[in-house]
């Protein structure tokens, strides 16, 4: 593919897109049509149509969604991509694609809460065994592997505590054990990390976050080898139906064009805010992969070309401080989600995360608390001016009693 030789900024703009052949439109049209006028040789079932058959019905494939999928595959260095209605749609879809009764899943013990909850209940109910380990230590991964392990699932940096996993290290263990590796790379984005180049079989993104980047469209994606993605599309998107709307695909594609420059801006602002917080008297700990104080800063330097805009910090009496921030912040929104142009902060008390989402052993809880204490503020640093963000935090923190 000619695009592979071009730099990522150019590919983010052009990959997957070309001027509309019927109108000459330079920007992509949104094709909202649910059905397409077909020839009499088209089959009514996906079983009878191959992957490059003409568009027939938008649950199977859609020109706007296909443009987004090609753009994302190009940026991740993947053969193919399947887009979903949300990040959780992508995660659930990939698990159903890879696993069946009798199989074993090894998973990071701290991942996006929704993915953790999915594998606490629904996935085990299907007869799939799940083992969750702290993957910042490769020995834990090696010890968890069984002959029936089919899939290893990691998130790096992980939501919400910013712990990293050595992707190439886990990939080598998977290869030796005959298991596949999936990486949720939402926090890193393809600008920071390209897991397929490190040996991963699948990459997952919540497109709702950095890739869309503007907080106005939910979406998800799975990327991987061509044949595998064709089967994922057939069995999961077409038959389970969790497809992305063309309008959301169009919004997200528009966001991707500026992803390289946004990630640079997120990283610059996050580094300033992280340093400011580290020097603030009310703050007891900051976790940002770009700071030397992060316990895995060396791994971050090795595996991330951009340190992204996500950081966490701790204070004494987090719950009381959360109330103050929610009330007093004027620029930063007190809200969930992340990766938007707008800065967002949210407080996550450790004890309630253990109850609702992460069912951890005592040693795993202790490892979690090393990063999160009694609770953390997850701060998604946007692309506003860093001094303005620091001033906003300073004025809000000045109200702590
Ligand atoms: C938000 C998030 C998800 C879920 O994505 P949705 O688009 O909200 O469904 C999955 N993984 C990570 C790391 C996330 O931050």
Describe this structure in a few short sentences.
By secondary structure, this protein is of the alpha/beta class. It contains 16 helices and twelve strands. Helix content is about 40%, strand content about 15%.
Can you put this structure into words, describing what you see?
This protein has 401 residues and is of the alpha/beta class. It has helices at 8-14, 63-76, 87-98, 113-120, 122-125, 138-144, 167-177, 189-192, 226-240, 246-256, 259-278, 297-303, 318-328, 350-356, 362-372, 386-397; strands at residues 80-84, 104-108, 129-133, 149-155, 180-184, 202-206, 220-224, 283-287, 310-315, 333-334, 344-349, 375-380. α1 (8-14) runs antiparallel to α2 (63-76), α3 (87-98) crosses α9 and α11 packs parallel to α16. The chain is globular, with a radius of gyration of 21 Å. Pyridoxal-5'-phosphate binds next to α3 and α4. Residues 86-88, 112, 114-115, 155, 159, 184, 186-187, 206, 208-209, 218, 220 line the site of pyridoxal-5'-phosphate (PLP).
């Amino acid at each position: 593919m000619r695009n592979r030789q071009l730099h990522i900024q150019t590919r983010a703009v052009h990959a997957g897109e070309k001027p509309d052949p019927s109108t000459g439109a330079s920007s992509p049209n949104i094709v909202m049509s649910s059905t397409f006028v077909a020839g009499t040789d088209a089959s009514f079932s996906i079983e009878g149509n191959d992957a490059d058959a003409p568009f027939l019905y938008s649950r199977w494939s859609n020109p706007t969604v296909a443009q987004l999928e090609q753009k994302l595959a190009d940026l991740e260095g993947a053969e193919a991509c399947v887009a979903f209605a949300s990040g959780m749609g992508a995660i659930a879809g990939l698990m159903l694609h890879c696993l069946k009764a009798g199989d074993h899943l090894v998973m990071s013990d701290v991942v996006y809460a929704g993915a953790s909850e999915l594998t606490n209940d629904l996935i085990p109910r299907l007869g799939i065994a799940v083992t969750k380990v702290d993957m910042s230590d490769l020995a834990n991964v090696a010890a968890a592997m069984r002959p029936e392990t089919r899939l290893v699932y990691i998130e790096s940096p992980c939501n919400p505590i910013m712990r990293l996993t050595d992707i190439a290290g886990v990939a080598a263990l998977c290869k030796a054990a005959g298991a596949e590796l999936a990486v949720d790379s939402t926090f890193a984005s393809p600008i920071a990390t390209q897991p397929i180049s490190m040996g991963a079989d699948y990459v997952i993104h919540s497109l709702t976050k950095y890739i869309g980047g503007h907080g106005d469209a939910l979406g998800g994606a799975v990327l991987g080898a061509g044949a595998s993605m064709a089967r994922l599309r057939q069995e999961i998107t077409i038959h389970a139906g969790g497809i992305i709307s063309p309008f959301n695909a169009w919004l997200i594609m528009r966001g991707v064009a500026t992803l390289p420059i946004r990630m640079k801006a997120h990283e610059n602002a996050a580094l300033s805010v992280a340093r400011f917080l580290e020097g603030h008297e009310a703050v007891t700990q900051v976790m940002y992969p770009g700071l030397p104080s992060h316990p895995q800063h060396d791994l971050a330097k090795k595996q991330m070309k951009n340190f992204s805009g996500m950081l966490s910090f701790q204070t004494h009496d987090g719950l009381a401080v959360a109330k103050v921030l929610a009330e007093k912040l004027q620029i930063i929104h007190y809200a969930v989600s992340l990766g938007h142009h707008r800065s967002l902060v949210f407080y996550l008390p450790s004890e309630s995360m253990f109850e609702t989402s992460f069912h951890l052993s005592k040693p795993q809880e202790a490892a979690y608390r090393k990063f999160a204490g009694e609770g953390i503020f997850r701060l998604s640093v946007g692309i506003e001016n860093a001094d303005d963000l620091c001033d906003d935090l300073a004025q809000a923190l000045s109200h702590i009693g």
